């Protein structure tokens, strides 16, 4: 993981029994280190988003959405490297091809949006995004191809607006989402998603690794 990964995510991963190696300031740099360790130590490499089996696993999120709510018309999903949305859109559209899927990136790390818009997979020179999970310079070959063909729309918005949505979700839903997970709700709150009134919308709240230690010592009344 990158050295600036959320402390609670590092702790949770260690608690599952993993050894966590921290390297670089962005996932792409940590990934280079992972490949080096694979070469040196013979480890098995598992890509965190550009892997068919992983995408199939994330497709179960789409299946669960459809099973819970077969009337769903629009699903909004955060994008980092694009694995999650690849699985969700493939599963949902297999259940009902009319379901619309929208992806949300940080405008400081719009690797998928720019690749799709410019018609080819590209690597961002710089990234201005601090949200773990969205901070990626280059999406995957497989995920780019799936998103290009099976995602209806991509929107981007700044980290600050996504963090506003973290608080909105806590206040209104009594749920603790991390930044990446709040991005779909942020896009809705900012009016970036065009949908007719009464459209049946699902936002994927994809994770809750928030550094709650920051809250210790606050007065709560
Ligand atoms: C909570 C959360 N949501 C969404 C994503 C984005 O997933 P993907 O990289 O498959 O697009 C991540 C990625 O790490 C994440 O941690």
Number of helices: 8
Physical arrangement of strands within the biggest beta sheet: 3-2-1-4
User: How does the overall form come out from the CA principal axes?
Assistant: globular
Number of strands: 4
Bound ligand species: pyridoxal-5'-phosphate
Largest sheet: 4 strands, parallel
- What is the H/E string? HHHEHEHHEHHE
Distance between the ends: 37 Å
List segments where confidence is low: pLDDT < 50 over at least 5 consecutive residues. none
Key phrases:
four-stranded parallel sheet, 4 strands, globular, binds pyridoxal-5'-phosphate
What does this structure look like?
With 221 residues, the chain is of the alpha/beta class. It has eight helices and four strands; from the N terminus they run αααβαβααβααβ. It has a four-stranded parallel beta sheet, sandwiched between helices. Helix 4 links the parallel strand 1 and strand 2. The mean pLDDT is 96. Pyridoxal-5'-phosphate (PLP) binds next to helix 4 and helix 8.
Précis, in short:
The chain is an alpha/beta fold.
Reconstruct the topology from this structure:
Blueprint: H1 7-15, H2 27-41, H3 52-68, E1 74-78, H4 83-95, E2 100-106, H5 111-118, H6 141-150, E3 153-157, H7 159-173, H8 179-189, E4 201-203
Parallel strand pairs: 1-2, 1-4, 2-3
Helix pairs in contact: 3-4, 4-6, 7-8
Bound molecules: pyridoxal-5'-phosphate.
